[in-house]
Structures are given as C-alpha cells and as structure tokens.
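REVIEWER CHECKLIST
Item 1: Sequence provided? yes
Item 2: Single chain? yes
Item 3: Sequence as submitted:
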Amino acid sequence: MMFERLVDNGFEVLCTNHAEAIVLHDFPDLVGELENALLGISLPMTEIIGGGGGEAKMTQRLRRGLADLHWRKHKFELTKTVDGVAKESISHEIDHVRRADNGTFALEIEWNNKDPFFDRDLENFKRLHAEGAISVGAIITRGSEMQATMREKVERFAVNRAIQDFTALMDFGAGSPTVPQRRQIESDMARGISFAKAWSKKFTSDKFGQATTHWLKLQDRVARGVGNPCPLILIGLPSSIIDMTA
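Item 4: Structure as written out by the authors:
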C-alpha cells in the first residue's frame, strides 16, 4: 500500500485516476519524502488558538521542510502561438513542485482556507496535466476526524488552561472577539453554557467552519469530477498531530 506509514498514523489517503500506480512506478522515492515530511509535523494548540492572520506556522514549517527536499514553488507558463506569434499566455503557480526523471509531481497545502481554493487547485492540476506539464497532483488538508473533533479539543484546552472569561482569553493571547462574537458567546452563557464551551463553539465555527478547506469538502469536489482526469492524491491530516500540551 502506498503511504502505508501515513495510514498507520491516522492520515487519510485517497488516490484517483490511477495515481497510486503512477507514483509507485514513476516516483517511488518521493513517497518516502512526503511521508517523512508529514510524519514530522506537529500542531501546538496554542498556535490554533493564538494564530492571527496570514499563513499558519505549521504550514510554514511544512513548506520549509518540503522546500529543503526540493519541493519548491513554481509558476508554469502556458503560451499558445499562431505562426510563431504568441496569442495567449496563462500562468499557473503551484506551491510545491517536485521534478523527477519520469515526470513532475505537483502539491498544494490547504490547511485552513476558504473551500473555493480547492476548485482553483483542482482546475490548475487539470489544465497542467492536460498540457503534459504534470503527471500527478496532490492536496493536503485537514482530515475528517480533525475537523469533527476540533471544537471539543479547543474547549478541553480552554478548560485545562483555565480560560474562563474574556479577560483570561486576552491574557492568553487569543485576542478579543468581535462585538457580534462576544454577544453570541454571552447569549449562550446566559442559557447556562460555560464560557469554554460557548467560546470554543463560536471560535471553531468561525475559524474552521464547513465553508473552509477540509477533507469532506475536498472529497465532495473530487466525487463530482472536479480536476478530472488528472491523477490525484488527497491527504487528510489527523487530529493526532495536535499537541494539547503546547
């Protein structure tokens, strides 16, 4: 089985359009590279709660690790010419591209973005594959278990760290909720719900809601044929990478 070590450690892996056969035949060494990079990542809960805008630190660490293994950003330029004259030029930037003797492997990381980014990634893979620019495309995102248990983990962390009110939340470094967020939390607390539960519910709904990039949203698109016929590898990050003590 390809990516057996990932599966044994709780990662979800799905291959389409003969991607597994292609990778095992043409890119066998890259399987180990990806496994080592992914098995080495950790996501402190403090980064989930205290993370501000911009790219997550975990994603940055993973990107640096992949770049060190020559999975680097690349902009593909596709130009159509008529009688030697360029008529149309389209570019597709992929965050991680790994070239090998038998072809090119493209990969995107969508840890926590708006879910239409899946459409962008899959359509880019489709066009690049049709032009012979890539052999296979891969997307890494939050796995289904991580998505399903995120609120519970955030609440447990808040309880363990004695985050029981807005002052404690700000002292921790999570920032102050907006006025509408605060009103919703206070409304839930007025109904007898603890601060940790009310805040974690609102926090995860806003930051990791159903309209963000996660496994089920990605599976849905692939099931509908988005990205076809490009061979695809989907990898879901497990909740086990979350470090509740850090």
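Item 5: Key structural point noted by reviewer: Residues 119 and 226 are 7 Å apart (CA to CA).
Item 6: Recommendation: ____
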